[in-house]
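Quick one: structure tokens for this chain, please?
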Amino acid sequence: MNIMERAIRIDCFQNLANYRKPSSFIIKESYPLPPYSTVIGMIHAISGFDSYHKMQVSIQGENAGSVSELYTRYSFKFDTKYEEGRHQLCIKGEDKDYGVFKGIAHVELICDNRMVLHIIPEEEDFDKKLLNCRKLNQQQFKIIFTFHFNQSWILDDAQAQHTC
């Protein structure tokens, strides 16, 4: 790693979000901030990348707390045949009908999540690709982005070591 590297800063806002903890089943609990893999995936999606681009990521943020919300949950197995009285929904297939359970469940939603993401890409022209794609995909993700591409915004080694 060089002593000084250029970084991209992205200010984000999400009204309601859930960054599901893999170990939560009955109530879909959430991390307070998205995991590194979620942010990296989001950057790839808004950039339109179809292959992996290495980057270092730093995630900072705050929120206004969380709420528990009800949602409709659909549960099914691929090989489960529809049985009247057992399943609430029937999905018609080519060769047989599949049974689906419909019920309610709880999800934890993070409210008014404000984040600052710092991204250090390995590619030289990564920031130009990201800048070209942000206008097209911003509405799709329902996140308010503010991009900062500034030559003077630089991380030194002490700051960079807190990145993934």
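Strands lie at 4-6, 8-17, 27-28, 55-62, 66-75, 89-92, 97-121, 144-148, 154-156.
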